[in-house]
Amino acid sequence: MNGIHLKHTIYSSFLGLTIFLTFTGTVYALEADDPFYAKQTYLKQIHMNEAWNVTQSNSGMIIAVVDTGVDLAHPDLKPNLVPGVNLIHPKQPPADDNGHGTNVAGVIGAVGNNDRGVAGMLWNARIMPIKALEADGSGGEQKLGEGIRYAVDHGAKIVVLSLGLNKYSAYMNDIVRYAEERDVLLVAATGNEGNRVKYPAAYPTVLAVGGVNANGTVNELSNTGPEVDVVAPWDVFSTAIGGSYEAKDGTSMAAPQVAAAAALLWGRNPEMKAYQIRQKIRQTAEDPTGKGWNPGTGYGLLRVDRLLNEPYLADMYEPNNRKDQAKVISVSKKITASFSDGTDNDWYATDASYDGTVNVTLELDSSLSVNVQHTDASGVLTTKTVQGGQTVPFKVTKGRSYFQLQLSDRNRKVETPYGLTTSFDIYRDPYEDNDRQFKAFVLPSRSVKVKGTFHQYNDVDWYEFPVQQTGSLRIHVMTDTARIDPVLLVQKQGEKSVTIDEGDDGATESYYLPEVFPGSYYIRVTNVKDYTNPIVGEYTLAIEYDAKLIDPNEPNNRSYQATAISMDTPYNGLIDKSDDVDWFQFKVEEESFVRVGLSDIPSGVSMYMHLYDGSMNSMATSMNSSSSDSQELSGRFKPGTYYLKLTANRPFDNRMYQLLVNAKPLTGGYTDIRGHWAQNAILNLTGKQVINGYDNYTFQPNRPITRAEATAVISRAFWLSKQKAVSYSDLPETHWAYDHVARATQAGIIDGYPDRTFAPDQPVTRMEMTAMLARSMNMTGKRRGALPFTDVDEEYWGTGLLKQMKAEGLIGGYADGSFRPEQQATRAEFVQMLMGILK
Fold this sequence. Notes:
Blueprint: E1 19-24, E2 27-32, H1 42-45, H2 48-52, E3 57-67, E4 85-86, H3 100-109, E5 124-131, H4 141-153, E6 156-161, H5 170-181, E7 185-189, E8 207-212, E9 230-233, E10 235-240, E11 244-249, H6 251-268, H7 274-283, H8 304-309, E12 327-328, E13 334-339, E14 346-352, E15 356-363, E16 369-375, E17 381-387, E18 391-396, E19 399-407, E20 416-426, E21 441-442, E22 448-452, E23 460-467, E24 471-479, E25 486-492, E26 497-500, E27 509-516, E28 519-527, E29 539-546, E30 563-564, E31 571-575, E32 582-588, E33 592-599, E34 607-612, E35 618-623, E36 631-637, E37 640-648, E38 652-665, H9 679-687, H10 707-717, H11 738-746, H12 766-776, H13 799-807, H14 827-838
Parallel strand pairs: 3-5, 3-6, 4-5, 6-7, 7-8, 8-9, 12-14, 21-23, 30-32
Antiparallel strand pairs: 1-2, 10-11, 13-20, 14-19, 15-18, 15-20, 16-17, 16-19, 22-29, 23-28, 24-27, 24-29, 25-26, 25-28, 31-38, 32-37, 33-36, 33-38, 34-35, 34-37
Helix pairs in contact: 3-6, 4-5, 9-14, 10-11, 12-14
């Protein structure tokens, strides 16, 4: 289903209105006495009464409603309507033949205080009805785009879009950009399917509105995702066609609340720009979690009273000068902020639902550039310089990662506003390149599940399933987003293909072959032909192959029959008799960290792994629970031959287990430092027990070093022993680094922040690293001498220390003469510098 659809429940009612001042303490709450005002409980939820104390109208600005039209004769709307257009039947007026547009218009601007029906959030307004949807509420992107453009070209400053499509289109993206360039605010509903945010709400500059229940929780049908900006009440009572009134629900009713609030604000502050209106609505929203932006509620619940009374902040994300103060933002939205000067650091956190790429676009003077440091969820640090107007990609893994932004010109003294736009591209799945049948990815001949993506335009994924013996085949394609409407094609080699496309957007497609014969079966997975763009989402191809399988490793029932296996190569087998035993052997060429993994264990089966050395001495055993389909043995292995015996609590012959052995050679006990430029320093200080790695035998040399880690290393390196009690709000005595911090504080090497925090997980900058190590040697710096690096000046707080450390040959910079003092220091850099000092 590729069109726009409107879903709602209808109740009928009648007319009325008046006005009250209710005194509460020292605050007067202005209430309308329209007959059905009592049914408009959502107005109190967004504190409309307090907002009406400030203003009730905006009759100087046009608000366009692109929808099914509006009841042009409705007595509660007619005074607030201006001429519009009917794009479905151009020779007719934009009269509503569905009811949805009339509902939306009533939320915005049903005349207030007129002794009739309900009160709109704007008692006096100028609403432009634009009919772009059919009588059944359906429509397409062409008419939607025409409607937005008509509104922009005919003076509208706000356009309300209580409709949606699952499809991204370059055409609509251009229309949205057209509105943004002309300073027109677009407000759209996220959709009511309990799925991903629909377009146009999903475009970066559109204000996307979700829906909440009366208790503030997100309605289960309200679409969520990285594009959500704010939420507003799900249930309303509004105008209806035929001059009547009715209860309505959905994000379609939440969006016009935000649009009306924007109009009230803009009417009082006509000098504001659309992006500032958008940002202030985010700024003043009521955060239900206290943790900042999230994909369910965005920045929080619309608060019209705060919107009209609180001052606009040029940077609503401050304070965010440290990693532990990082503000969460979306991976797919445009925000605005500012640098107070060249020394200001802005930290942001993003949560990626998949592996992929976050594209960062910075809007500021093209003569300026920003240093962007990205710390991935896996700990990998990447630094790039982004010019104003440039878009730069950063690879991310699923989970939370951090961005640190700072002007490249650290000497800049003036405040510098900037726009930050993020967009997300999903990862290329591991089965590519399989866009042609002859490139089909060959799957194992057993029941299997694979996750794939449509990461590029017109992506087509082919798979080959080799059937080795007669059986049956069930094929399912499922997706986690309605932006994918999967189409399945199945073809036995040399025979006609069958195409399956029975479900709508996001629905599962299935196909059953009761009898399959030996040969290759080709399976193609695509999105519907209209959805050609890359999609942020995954599909799952599940194949259930029911056949009596044959163990390819038999005979291997004795240790002397053990199947020799190669590292990183999967081996499949069966325990098909009650007394069956499967033996395997593998060789470790040098001391390594070895993982022995057993997966795809049939449901309800417990398998046992017994590990032996070359002399058949037992080393370890493992067993999975009947509810788990995998298990693992791992550890440090010396060079030699090892044997593995597999048994099970009951036989199985309809699914093969998979055995995979992986060995990573160890250097000094680490798997990830061999050949690294800091290898010698890491080995030396590890031998002296000054540093250590992680439980998985990694050192992670390129990971940023934290304040706690750096302090602990210095404490051990300089044999600090004296300590005084320290009291930091974020460093309890139970923290693993507490004693080290206390000793380093006693020695005057490190201290906390003015707010009495220590920020133990905050990354250390290269300047902080230098200062800590300099203080460890009681260096105080020197004033005289030439500047040691091109990116520091005499006013920089660390210049004296840099001069002294450089003069004594303890530090060096980069090839371009810079030191990059505010760049995060890695564990390898810290160890290398410490090694030079200890020498």
